[in-house]
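Exercise: predict the fold of this chain.
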Amino acid sequence: MNYQVYIKRKEHRLRQADVAKKLGISTQSYYLKETGKRDFTITEAKRLALIYGCTLNDLFPVGLEVI
């Protein structure tokens, strides 16, 4: 799961459908990406960073190990 993407969405009080619309993808596609079943494209990741006013590293931390 992309926890930081989920947290940022909740902090901004957006629904998955809201973010999906801003990215130009379906809600189902967004759900799959936020839950880690599919990967965000580079373009989508950059748009998410713009929407949330943060960096790509904030959304997708490198070296974060999930146990």
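Check your answer against the key: The chain is about 60% helix and 0% strand.
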